[in-house]
Write a structure and sequence with these properties.
The structure holds 2 protein chains of 2 kinds. By secondary structure, chain A is mainly alpha-helical. Chain A is 54% helix and 2% strand. Chain A has a two-stranded antiparallel ribbon. Chain B folds into 2 domains: 31-365, Cytochrome Bc1 Complex, Chain C; 429-527, no CATH class. In chain B, 63% of the residues lie in helices and 6% in strands. Chain B starts with a helix and ends with a helix. Chain B is globular, with a radius of gyration of 29 Å. The chains are: A mainly alpha, B mainly alpha.
């Protein structure tokens, strides 16, 4: 014990401890941030862009043009940004299965790596909204449910319904249900405005407000059915249907039974 | 006499000596009511009204009908810290903190939907069986009044919680008021105590919803039932049933037991729905804010047809002397409903004008035997159904992957085309059913047994029907068309020629029927 005490009082102890502490912090930080540090080297990035270009030429160029310039049936992709590609391809909306009014969410055609390559290629041609990183999407920490609800009712409910169940738009278009949509895709949809949806730039909804909206949507998604069967959360139409089928059906059934003569 | 009977007798005697109730009870408790399931539909409406009174009273204990702004600090986390009206906050309080509050709210709302649905099916029963004919025209008008008030009362209840859906409904109601030429703006300002939404509306409609309209309801329902009591219930035709008697069970004990039991069944069904199915989850809608709206904002079903009519109206506007007259709101929102409900109320008088029938009727019509009335009823229902479906056009569009514009165009055309088709088809079906009845009476029931005659011919054996059934199928009368002369006995043209002509034509169409078999027809058949 004396020996340890002596060592602690030595003149070298303070600088040595400082060096050890700095080293420990540096190491921990480099280990902890290693995932974010996996920035691709220039060579790797070039290779990814080249791969993306190949995929684009095979799978997308017939509609969007060899140089992303668009055509009669598809918009130009110059400047749409990586976020747009990640949203459209990652949710399976692109490539489209048929030329109906609206691209529907389906099983993605390309895997994560191919989607990333496509996004890198499109982003390389012109600047545009980037894919939000994990740290930008921490809605649990940075969002506020009550504020998100107010923002949702002001900006989103008129198309997506009060509970995010989706709704009809004109000419067969529709706002899809938001239930079960990954936060990343909600964020990307907000910043890129896919299909009939408007863009909600950071001036309209700040990043923190976007996270609040996402937090409210996730809350609505996970909310237990407080009053019993939710009936789709689409308002009085399903309630009226239930009254005329089950409610009145039961009551008329009982009335018939009551008026039956005893045998 | 046992001890119990002695006690009961003493009590009964005590009451009778002071009130003279025995004579009254003897007369009324033995009153006879005919028995048929369709006669119980009005009872469903009555019982759900009682449930509405009870559950509504419960809700008033905690509801705060005020638009005063409060900060929500209740147990529903997603709304915590938001500013809202006291009305909305207290509805959240009822839903989440009051014991049994959410169940009561849901029972109240489900009972309201059942109440309106029961009124409609009861009205359909009365209409299609001709139970509105003399002497019951007044009761018919009271019934139409109850239906109309029910729509208003339901709408006010839907508006009270002051959530996003409520406010949207009130906003549309305000627009319909404003669509009235000249006076609309003034009435709207008067009703809202200023500009929309103001702070006066919720307290005002609360008074109307819990005091004025329930009071009028109670009074009208009482008169409605007293008239049924006084005029006696109608009955289906059958052997031994005439225009001068009532065949059925006495009130005590059979009918009273059934009716009492039925009340608890209606309560049970309402409570069951309130317990298992969510209705109007106001916490999801959020507090009302005029700047917000939800996709798929609908009224409750009994107003859905009105919403559907407004939704299908093309954007028509008139500009007169610097005033805008929005025909796209005025026509579907006020004029068409006005015509429909006035026509409905006056129908008994219209029909008696057409048939010239001023006699009392206590025997019901089988719908097939009055093809024109039945067809008119189906035609009106078709109109309402098209309007109702268009009221839910957005939900239909997303559910069945259709375009909302196509549904709207379908409705715009169908509202004019389908009702007349429904009229013609229903009339033909009624006449065919009459033909089938005639066939059944004359030739009996097809037994499906084949018989080979000695000379090799095969015939199917027909079995004569029971006399009871034959009575039922032939008891109705078939009045000829009105013989209205264009000129009087001296060859002078009558006044009101056009009106007479119209009456003559409708009367002739109304009298179209398949001649029911007569006794002679039957005898002739037996000779063969």
């Amino acid at each position: 014990m004396r020996k340890l005490s002596k060592l602690r009082r030595s003149a070298l102890a303070s600088p040595l401890l400082l060096v050890i502490a700095l080293f420990a912090i540096g190491t921990t930080f480099s280990v902890a941030s290693a995932t974010n540090k996996s920035e691709l080297t220039t060579d790797q990035r070039s290779a990814q862009i080249a791969e993306g270009k190949q995929i684009f030429l095979k799978g997308c160029s017939s509609c969007h043009g060899l140089n992303l310039e668009g055509g009669a049936i598809a918009p130009s992709l110059i400047g749409v940004g990586a976020a747009s590609v990640d949203f459209q391809v990652g949710t399976g909306r692109m490539p489209m299965a048929d030329m109906s009014t609206q691209a529907v969410r389906k099983k993605p055609v390309y895997n994560d790596e191919q989607t990333a390559a496509l996004a890198a290629y499109v982003a390389s041609t012109a600047p545009g909204p980037a894919i939000p990183t994990e740290s930008m999407l921490n809605y649990e920490r940075d969002g506020n449910t009550a504020e998100g609800g107010t923002l949702f009712r002001t900006n989103c409910a008129m198309c997506h319904n009060f509970a995010g169940q989706g709704g009809a738009l004109t000419q067969g278009k529709y706002a899809p249900s938001l239930m079960g949509v990954e936060p990343k895709y909600i964020y990307e949809a907000l910043i890129t405005g896919p299909q009939a949806m408007p863009v909600f730039s950071d001036k309209t909804l700040t990043p923190a407000e976007k996270l609040s909206v996402i937090k409210w949507i996730k809350g609505a998604e996970n909310e237990p059915q407080l009053g019993g069967a939710a009936l789709g959360r689409v308002g009085p139409v399903t309630e009226g249907l239930l009254v005329w089928t089950l409610g009145l059906g039961l009551l008329i059934g009982v009335a018939v039974w009551l008026a039956t003569k005893a045998r | 006499m046992t001890a119990r009977e002695r006690v009961a007798g003493t009590v009964a005697n005590y009451v009778d000596e002071r009130t003279g109730a025995a004579k009254w009870a003897k007369k009324n408790l033995t009153k006879v009511f005919p028995d048929h399931w369709s006669f119980l539909l009005g009872e469903v409406a009555l019982y759900s009204f009682i449930i509405l009174l009870l559950s509504g009273t419960f809700l008033t204990f905690w509801f705060d009908p005020s638009q005063r702004e409060v900060l929500y600090e209740g147990s529903y986390e997603p709304l915590n810290g938001l500013h809202m009206s006291a009305a909305y906050a207290s509805t959240l309080h009822i839903s989440f903190e009051v014991r049994g509050g959410l169940l009561m709210r849901q029972i109240h709302h489900w009972a309201a939907l059942i109440f309106m649905a029961a009124i409609v099916v009861h009205l359909m029963r009365v209409y299609f069986t001709g139970a509105f004919r003399k002497p019951r025209e007044f009761n018919w008008i009271i019934g139409v009044g109850l239906l109309t008030l029910g729509i208003v009362e339901g709408f006010l209840g839907y508006s009270l919680p002051d959530d996003l859906l409520s406010g949207t409904g009130i906003r549309i109601a305000e627009a319909i008021i404003q669509a009235l030429p000249v006076v609309g703006t003034y009435i709207a300002f008067f009703a809202f105590g200023g500009a929309f939404p103001g702070e006066a509306f919720i307290p005002r409609i609360f008074t109307v919803h819990v005091l004025l309209l329930p009071g009028i309801f109670l009074a009208l329902i009482t008169v409605h039932l007293m008239l049924v009591w006084y005029q006696k219930h109608t009955q289906w035709p059958g052997p031994g049933r005439t225009e001068k008697n009532v065949v059925g069970y006495p009130l005590m004990p059979a009918y009273m037991a059934k009716a009492g039991g039925f009340f608890f069944i209606v309560f049970g069904v309402t409570a069951f729905l309130g317990a298992v199915a969510s209705i109007n989850p106001i916490w999801l809608y959020g507090p009302y804010n005029p700047g917000q709206i939800s996709a798929g904002s609908q009224p409750d079903w009994y107003m859905g047809w009105l919403d559907g009519l407004v939704r299908m109206a093309p954007p028509l506007e008139l500009h007169l002397l610097g005033h805008t007259i929005p025909l796209n709101i005025l026509i579907p929102g006020l004029i068409v409903p006005g015509i429909l409900f006035t026509g409905l109320a006056l129908y008994p008088f219209i029909e008696s004008w057409i048939t010239g029938d001023k006699r009392e009727h206590h025997l019901l019509d089988r719908p097939r035997n009055v093809p024109n009335r039945t067809a008119l009823g189906v035609m009106s229902l078709t109109f309402m159904l098209v309007a109702l479906l268009n009221g839910g056009n957005d939900i239909i569009a997303t559910t069945f992957h259709l375009g909302i514009n196509q549904i709207m165009w379908f409705s715009r055309i169908a509202i004019f085309v389908l009702p007349p088709i429904a009229f013609v088809v229903t009339k033909r079906i009624c006449l065919s059913l009459q033909r089938a009845d005639r066939e059944l009476v004359l030739h009996g029931r097809e037994t499906g047994r084949l018989l080979m005659l000695p000379h090799g011919e095969f015939v199917e054996v027909h079995e004569p029907i029971s006399p009871e059934l034959a009575w039922k199928l032939t008891a109705h009368e078939q009045a000829p068309a009105l013989a209205l002369e264009d000129v009087d006995a001296r060859g002078v043209r009558r006044a009101g020629g056009l009106k007479n002509k119209l009456r003559k034509r409708i009367s002739a169409a109304n009298a179209e029927s398949i001649a029911k078999p007569t006794a002679n027809d039957l005898k002739e058949i037996e000779h063969h």
